[in-house]
Amino acid sequence: MTDQPSYVYVSYVESTPEAVWDALTDADLTAVYWGHGNVSDWAPGSRWAHVRTDGSGIADVVGTVVTADRPTLLVTTWAPPGDEENRPSRVTFAVRPHGDIVRLTVTHEDLRDAADRAAAARGWPAVLSNLKSLIETGTPLPQDPWLVPPD
C-alpha cells in the first residue's frame, strides 16, 4: 500500500462475468466503447497497449499484465509509452457475479498526483458507462461521454 492517490469506481452490469471480461480485453470490443483497442495476449507478464482506433497505431497507454484470472480479476500497470519503468500506476478490474448481474469494481492506484486522480475520476465513469451501455443494449452511448465538458 502506498500513500499515492487512488480512485475506485463501481458499476453494475446486467451481464455475465465472461461478457464483462471480454469487453475489457477484446481489442475489437474496447475499440467500440473506448475509442482504443486494448491489445495483448493477456498472459501475466505480457505487455498490453491502449491503441488508438484511428489507424495510426499509436498507443496512449501501455503496461504489463500483472494478473489475469478470467473472468474475475485483471490487474495491469498503466503508464505513458516510454515511461513504463518510472513508477507506473496500477489498475485492478474485479468482476463479481451476483445472480443476473455483475459488479465491476475498477481500482486505479499509485496515481502520481491529485491531477492524475482527477483525470481518473473524469475518465473511468465515462468509459465504464459506455461499456455498460454496449453490453446491455448492444450499442455504446450516442456521444463519447468523456467529451462532456466538466461542470
From TrEMBL:
<dbReference type="InterPro" id="IPR013538">
    <property type="entry name" value="ASHA1/2-like_C"/>
</dbReference>
<dbReference type="Pfam" id="PF08327">
    <property type="entry name" value="AHSA1"/>
</dbReference>
<protein>
    <recommendedName>
        <fullName>Activator of Hsp90 ATPase homologue 1/2-like C-terminal domain-containing protein</fullName>
    </recommendedName>
</protein>
<feature type="domain" description="Activator of Hsp90 ATPase homologue 1/2-like C-terminal">
    <location>
        <begin position="16"/>
        <end position="136"/>
    </location>
</feature>
<comment type="similarity">
    <text>Belongs to the AHA1 family.</text>
</comment>
<dbReference type="InterPro" id="IPR023393">
    <property type="entry name" value="START-like_dom_sf"/>
</dbReference>
